[in-house]
């Protein structure tokens, strides 16, 4: 009989991200084979199981929160793939998300909503490299646009605050920010806390403060008021690729030297950012018209009829608000729609080009490659 690998899944079920990773692992198993699994529901901070020290299994998929778990898995000598933090003293191969891509994506979304003021909200509890990557990439994108990035790093007092006191301090920070402002929260959990702080500060969401989180945890994002926009972490694909890597390692292939970091899936827009932050009513009308009709073959001259503005005024005022021309905004909306269709449907590239308003599939492919850096087929395979 063929040996069935014995694999431990030490991945939390307390967060949507961990559950999405497990769905990705399950998908790989359905497509590629069978493992004998050790799995129990647990939290991210669960200690290493006592049996791991003497276990003689074949492989481990683990989300590591602290050095104790890292040491236990590393010293087991069993092939293992880490789906969270790296520890230099206990090196394990890593499969995870490209956090440096998140900040740029969040900024472009908020900038596309018309915001000129930006902020980043994290927590003193999150002193991890991935938080720094998200902050630094967001701050760099803001600075490149010639604007200032306001940062909340948690309570400034040395003593630990309780939840109520911390929420009140966060509310004070929100109230002091220039409004309207677009804020990136480093996770959906922090976004939920931030939206509660907005309520306490009596600021309107999204009119005065727009909030975008990370992970697109459906439970958290739809539980907030208003529902929260978020960047999809692409966690199912991360789980899938981690399972594939572990399978190769159990078959004797060498351990990769560099982490495998996968791109985020894209922005899922909900009410917390569903606004165009500008007092220019004509440009607000133009941009809303673009976002509703860009994929219908919309031409720029049609916007002059919607706004009653000349082409030159439309161009100048749109650039002042968005940092790009009306034509560039039309193409941006078309490409973003195409990316979603490539990831979420099985439509051919030719069918997607028509649905997104391009005159010819060849032209669509040229524009897509120029804007995304790869042709449509390669983009679909990278997010399969």
Question: Into which percentage range does the β-strand content fall?
Answer: 5-15%
Strand order of the largest sheet: 7-6-8-9-10-12
Into how many domains do the coordinates divide?
A: 3
CATH class of the largest domain: Alpha Beta
Task: Describe the sheet with the most strands.
Answer: 6 strands, mixed
Element order: H for helix, E for strand: EHEEHEEHEHEHEHEHEHEEHHHHHHH
User: End-to-end distance, in Å?
Assistant: 33 Å
- CATH architecture descriptor of the largest domain: 3-Layer(aba) Sandwich
**How helix-rich are the residues, as a percent range?**
40-55%
Q: Give the C-alpha Rg.
A: 23 Å
**Overall pLDDT:** 89
Number of continuous helical runs: 15
Tally of strands: 12
The gross shape turns out to be globular
Stretches where pLDDT falls below 50 for ≥5 residues?
A: 155-159
CATH superfamily of the largest domain: Response regulator
CATH topology call of the largest domain:
Rossmann fold
What structural category arises from helix and sheet content?
alpha/beta
Write structural notes for this entry.
- It is a single chain.
- The protein is of the alpha/beta class and 384 residues long.
- It has 3 domains: 6-97 and 235-265, 3-Layer(aba) Sandwich (Rossmann fold), CATH 3.40.50; 100-233 and 267-273, Response regulator (Rossmann fold, 3-Layer(aba) Sandwich); 281-382, Homeodomain-like (Arc Repressor Mutant, subunit A, Orthogonal Bundle), CATH 1.10.10.
- The protein contains 15 helices and 12 strands.
- It has a 6-stranded mixed β-sheet with strand order 7-6-8-9-10-12, sandwiched between helices. It has a 4-stranded parallel β-sheet with strand order 2-1-3-4, covered by helices on one side.
- Helix 2 (67-76) links the parallel strand 3 and strand 4.
- Helix 5 crosses helix 6 (188-200).
- The longest helix has 19 residues, at 326-344.
- The model is unreliable at 155-159 (pLDDT under 50).
């Amino acid at each position: 009989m063929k040996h069935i690998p014995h694999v431990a899944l030490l991945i939390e079920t307390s967060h949507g991200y961990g559950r999405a990773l497990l769905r990705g692992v399950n998908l790989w198993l359905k497509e590629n084979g069978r493992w004998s699994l050790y799995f129990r529901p647990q939290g991210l901070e669960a200690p290493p199981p006592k049996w791991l020290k003497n276990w003689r299994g074949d492989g481990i998929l683990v989300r590591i929160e602290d050095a104790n778990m890292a040491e236990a898995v590393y010293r087991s000598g069993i092939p293992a793939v880490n789906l969270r933090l790296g520890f230099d003293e206990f090196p394990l191969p890593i499969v995870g998300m490209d956090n440096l891509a998140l900040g740029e994506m969040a900024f472009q979304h908020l900038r596309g909503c018309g915001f000129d003021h930006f902020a980043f909200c994290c927590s003193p509890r999150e002193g991890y490299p991935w938080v720094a990557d998200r902050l630094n990439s967001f701050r760099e994108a803001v600075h490149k646009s010639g604007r200032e990035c306001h940062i909340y790093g948690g309570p400034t007092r040395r003593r630990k605050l309780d939840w109520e006191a911390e929420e009140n301090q966060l509310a004070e920070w929100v109230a002091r920010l220039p409004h309207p402002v677009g804020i990136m929260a480093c996770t959906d959990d922090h976004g939920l806390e931030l939206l509660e702080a907005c309520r306490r500060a009596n600021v309107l969401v999204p009119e005065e403060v727009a909030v975008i989180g990370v992970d697109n945890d459906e439970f958290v994002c739809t539980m907030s008021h208003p529902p929260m926009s978020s960047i999809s972490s692409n966690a199912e694909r991360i789980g899938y690729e981690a399972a594939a890597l572990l399978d190769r390692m159990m078959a004797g292939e060498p351990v990769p030297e560099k982490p495998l970091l996968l791109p985020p899936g894209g922005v899922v827009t909900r009410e917390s950012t569903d606004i165009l932050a500008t007092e220019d009513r004509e440009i607000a009308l133009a941009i809303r018209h673009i976002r509703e009709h860009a994929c219908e073959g919309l031409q720029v001259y049609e916007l002059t009829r919607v706004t009653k503005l000349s082409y030159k005024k439309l161009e100048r005022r749109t650039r002042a608000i968005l940092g790009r021309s009306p034509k560039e905004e039309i193409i941006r909306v078309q490409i973003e729609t195409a990316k979603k269709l490539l990831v979420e449907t099985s439509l051919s590239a030719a069918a997607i080009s028509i649905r997104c308003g391009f005159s010819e599939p060849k032209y669509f492919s040229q524009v897509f490659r120029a804007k995304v850096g790869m042709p449509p087929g390669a983009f679909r395979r990278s997010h399969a």
